[in-house]
Amino acid sequence: MIGFAHFKKDPRYLLKNNLLRIICFLSINLYLWMRLEISWQQITFYSISIFLLSMAGTLPTALGMFIGFALHWYQFNVSANDFVLIAAGILMTFPVTGLYHCCSHESIKPRWLNRFFGELTGTWHNSSLDEWSIIHAYHHRYADDNENDPHPPNGQAFFQYISGMGKTIARTFGKHYLTEHGQGSRQVKDLKRISWSIMIRQITVSSFWFLALGPQAFVFLYGSNIVFKKWHYAWFNWATHVKQDNKVMILNKSKGFYQIVNFLTFNLYYHENHHLRPGLFNPKTLKKSEKIEQVA
């Protein structure tokens, strides 16, 4: 998994990684602001939407999207293009999620192309490829372990699961960080610095998309993408890790509606296969004989 070995060796790897991203996006944002005709008044007007869409929680991002809608419609009339952008933002979530997931496992060759697509899709989802890959590595190592898996559904109702998913990821990551690097005061401070750096990085990336896309596309295309991708990530985990008779089963979802979803996500929902062969780009191609070997 990308970045995992570096993370285990260097307790400040993620902090350095985030600071580098912050510097890069601040520089790009300054360049865009100087070159494009976007005034401070526009940035200030949409600032609450930019800020809320940078947050990790499901509710703040949804609020940021709807505030963005209201602010834009306060300035301009409702346009059919607004709804086209919303639909496009939602639809784009599926292939971007599938590709990002593949990149976290380094499933694309050569490695530079994997990094390129990983950074591109990660930036669109306001995420960091290294950070997400590290969290995802713990998911595979401790799948459905309620104490160590960053996002185990554990038989919860969907809305209960999605509302607590962000807190569970943060808590579990903090636990693994301190386990890997020690529980001294320095490590605790570094963990807090990482949390702050994530928030600042997300604000700079959100600002980048506002400057690059302009207010309309930012609010309707990017905003709907950010909100829906949180629901999609939660649904994907919730639907494929199912508790039955006090035992969690990892499932392949391939019938009915999931045929369309798999087509759009590079067969993301063949999740049992994926856990058997995480590095396989297309988990649908896993043969039954390989499954038997893995289980044995």
Describe this structure in words.
The protein has helices at residues 4-9, 13-35, 40-45, 47-52, 58-75, 80-104, 111-124, 129-141, 158-181, 185-213, 215-240, 257-264, 271-276, 288-295, and strands at residues 241-244, 247-250. It is mainly alpha-helical. The protein has 2 domains: 4-234, no CATH class; 251-296, no CATH class. The chain has a two-stranded antiparallel ribbon with strand order 1-2. A hairpin with a 2-residue loop joins strand 1 (241-244) and strand 2. Helix 6 (80-104) packs antiparallel against helix 7, helix 6 packs across helix 11 and helix 9 (158-181) packs across helix 11 (215-240). The longest helix is centred in the C-terminal third of the chain and has 29 residues, at 185-213. The protein starts with a helix and ends with a helix. Residues 292-296 have low confidence and may be disordered.
In short:
With 296 residues, the protein is mainly α. It contains 14 helices and two strands, in the order H-H-H-H-H-H-H-H-H-H-H-E-E-H-H-H. The longest helix has 29 residues, at 185-213.
